[in-house]
Write a structure and sequence with these properties.
The chain folds into two domains: about 350 residues, Alkaline Phosphatase, subunit A; about 80 residues, Arylsulfatase, C-terminal domain (2-Layer Sandwich), CATH 3.30.1120.10. The longest helix is centred in the middle third of the chain and has 26 residues. It has about 475 residues and is an alpha/beta fold. It starts with a helix and ends in a 28-residue tail after the last helix. Strands 1, 2, 3, 4, 7, 8, 9, 10, 11, 12 and 13 form an eleven-stranded mixed β-sheet that branches. A four-stranded antiparallel β-sheet has the order 14-15-16-17, covered by helices on one side. The chain is built from eleven helices and 17 strands. The structure holds 2-acetamido-2-deoxy-beta-D-glucopyranose (NAG) (5 copies). One 2-acetamido-2-deoxy-beta-D-glucopyranose binds next to helix 5 and helix 7. The site of one 2-acetamido-2-deoxy-beta-D-glucopyranose has 6 residues, from strand 16.
Length: about 475
């Protein structure tokens, strides 16, 4: 940190002391999402990954050991934003592809919209991926006072250009609603850190702040400044080396942001959530060992997310691992209630887990739907220890981190049964299908799944729309074609 910057911090820290008597009693909330971060890609689980800041916050906070997410980006973000399972919002199949007129339905009230009614300033920095074909689906029309970031699912970390779709090629980076070119050439993790720090330094502390910070990291393409990947020069697998560096850059980002929060006195009344959006993709350097499967699958490796909560003052119990069942939809009511709202009458799937998160109480959740697909016959359901999987389940196995000397038996490639049952408490790595021994339980769970399936809404799976082509919008991916 430069001298000038520390001087500014010291000055601000001083002025914030003077103002502290008027500080709002509602906590500031920072919700950090890592993209495609695998179960085995964080230092508190795998010491080969260097994430000293995340490790410290996790170990001083509450590590969530059964925190479930959806297998893919858009569906999980839908959970964070709406408190509803994607099979109840039409987002259960795949992601929002950039050229597709697909979005989180406009009638859903988002968490920032709710927090705004409670007096929060709401900011978003990072990846949206919940649709942008019309302005009404974009962050600044969905509860965020400010937005800096990108609308779609992936792009180059430096050029901020997304160019994979057929002949379409375009820039995807905005400040508020304007195309923002000043950051061309700058690594997105740096851009987002600067923007987050800017928001924090300019925040009027008489109001509570909600900062939603979904990083581009550590999704592909695998790109990182060399100073981070150099830390892993001993790893010979290039993907794993770069990916690990990207995780360390993300850790550094959280260090830089939390240092400012600390120096400006925000930590005295702040809740920080850190979660992945889905399991890691092993083909892109990620790892979910020892869990089975990865991103885009219903196996635990795709859905059991690395995550924790941290607060210096709000957690009555901290410094431990909570085994309780938690789902991405639970953040919505939990944060709303912590912010002084009332989630009890809302038409959502999320359950308020305030007691679990703040007091170390038991989880109030005993079941959830991993997903019910519409575009093919496949679903998974959790009920207590048990996990039912039906239909066309992808044939995923167990993948040790690249370069490890863990020996795994040859994968059995015979077709999977169309109904499987696992006891996740006894068998978290899903090695033993116990469906044959438990026909009564299987029948019971199939009926439960049929009831859930009866409440699903049809998936939104529109074809690509050529009107999305950035040539129609001065070279930028832009709203205005649905
Ligand atoms: C977290 O869950 C895993 C898998 O069930 C288990 O092996 C591990 O012991 C748990 N960690 C803690 C600290 O309870
Ligand atoms: C972002 O846009 C807002 C509103 O147009 C403007 O006030 C602000 O200065 C812009 N920020 C940057 C970093 O350009
Ligand atoms: C964090 O701040 C340090 C010191 O200013 C800087 O060298 C580093 O690049 C920053 N990292 C990120 C990810 O912002
Ligand atoms: C859900 O119900 C539909 C009929 O409404 C059916 O086509 C589909 O196969 C069911 N899915 C599952 C996973 O049971
Ligand atoms: C699942 O495993 C747990 C923990 O080992 C055990 O207590 C429970 O009885 C098992 N349930 C079934 C249906 O096998």
């Amino acid at each position: 940190m430069t001298m000038r910057f520390s001087a500014v911090l010291a000055l601000l820290a001083f002025s914030s002391c003077l103002k502290s008597s008027t500080a709002a009693d509602k906590p500031h909330i920072i919700f950090i999402v890592a993209d495609d971060l695998g179960w085995n890609d964080v230092g508190w689980i795998n010491p080969d990954i260097q994430t000293p800041t995340l490790d410290r916050l996790a170990r001083d906070g509450v590590i969530l050991n059964s925190s479930y997410v959806q297998p893919l980006c858009s569906p999980s973000r839908n959970c964070f934003m709406s408190g509803k399972f994607p099979y109840h919002t039409g987002l259960q199949d795949k992601v929002v592809f950039i050229e597709q007129p697909k979005y989180m339905p406009a009638d859903l009230i988002t968490i920032p919209q709710r927090l705004k009614t409670l007096g929060y300033d709401t900011h978003m920095v990072g990846k949206w991926h919940l649709g942008f074909c019309n302005w009404k689906y974009t962050p600044t029309y969905r509860g965020f006072d400010t937005f800096m970031g990108y609308y779609a699912g992936m792009e180059d970390y430096f050029t901020h250009v997304r160019d994979e779709v057929a002949d379409y090629y375009g820039y995807d980076f905005r400040n508020m609603t304007d195309v923002y070119k000043d950051v061309q050439g700058e690594y997105s993790t740096y851009v987002f850190v600067k923007r987050a720090i800017d928001i924090i330094m300019n925040h009027d502390k008489s109001k509570p702040m909600y900062l939603y910070l979904p990083f581009q990291a550590v999704h592909g393409p695998l790109q990182v400044p060399a100073k981070y990947s150099d830390r892993y020069s001993h790893i010979h697998d290039l993907n794993r080396m770069v990916y690990s560096g990207m995780v360390s850059a993300l850790d550094d980002a959280v260090y830089n942001i939390t240092t400012v929060l600390e120096n400006l006195g925000f930590m005295d009344n702040l809740l920080l959530v850190f979660t992945t959006d889905n399991g890691g993709p092993p083909s892109h350097g990620a790892n979910n060992w020892p869990l089975r499967g990865g991103k885009a699958t219903l196996w635990e490796g795709g859905t059991r997310g690395a995550g924790f909560v941290y607060s210096k003052t709000l957690l009555k119990k901290r410094g431990y691992t909570h085994p309780g069942m938690f789902h991405a939809v639970d953040w919505y009511p939990t944060l709303l209630d912590i912010a002084g709202g009332d989630s009890s009458q809302l038409d959502i799937d999320g359950m308020s887990q305030v007691d679990m998160i703040l007091n170390g109480g038991s989880s109030v959740r005993n079941e959830f739907v991993y997903n019910i697909y519409d575009d093919h016959y496949a679903a998974a359901l959790r009920w207590g220890d048990l996990k039912l999987m039906v239909g066309d389940i992808s044939h995923a196995g167990w993948i040790p981190p690249a370069g490890s000397d863990i020996d795994i038996p040859e994968m059995d490639n015979s077709p999977l049964p169309s109904v499987m049952l696992f006891n996740i408490s006894a068998d978290p790595t899903e090695h033993h299908d116990i469906s044959k021994d438990n026909p009564i339980l299987v029948n019971f769970l199939l009926q439960m799944l049929a009831l859930k399936n009866g409440t699903r809404v049809p998936a939104m799976d529109p074809p690509s729309d050529p009107r999305s082509n950035p040539v129609n919008f001065n070279g930028a991916w832009s709203p205005g074609w649905c």
